[in-house]
Amino acid sequence: MVRWPKLFQGSNAESKVLRYKVKFDPCFISEKTEYEPGESVTVKYPYIATDTSYNFFADADDVRVDCDGCVATIRFTMPDHDVEVSCTSRNTMRPDFTDESFMNIFKNGLPNVDGGQERVFPPSNEAELPEGKWECKCCGAINGGKFCSECGSPKQ
Length: 156
What we know:
Elements: E1 7-9, E2 15-17, E3 20-23, E4 34-35, E5 40-45, E6 52-58, E7 64-68, E8 71-77, E9 83-91, H1 100-108, E10 134-135, E11 142-143
Parallel strand pairs: 3-9
Antiparallel strand pairs: 1-2, 3-4, 5-8, 6-9, 7-8, 10-11
């Protein structure tokens, strides 16, 4: 079904195309907040952290999310209604309770910070991923397909 933009009469009796709004919180950045239906929309989220998983939402049909370093770019075609763009996130930094060096902290106590001799803890080994799995460079999620299940970024 084809939807045509709604028209309204301007003050000079001219017909103008109605613009719809993109609504988002102050963490997002966009060149403008009003668009005509069918116009390309780009919204940026410049606060991507390495220890956090993100999910972006927009009430549009063709939403694409790309992540380049610490900036997520959300793109879509403006539908014939207002669109709200939002983000949820969760900290993905989890302790590895099977790591012996981590457990030694609790067995031996925390390093002495009162001027005594500091304990040196051995660096933990990075866990190897199972065969066929990969870690997303954008959000850190572990995946098995061509795209990240958390943020949608392609496998790199």
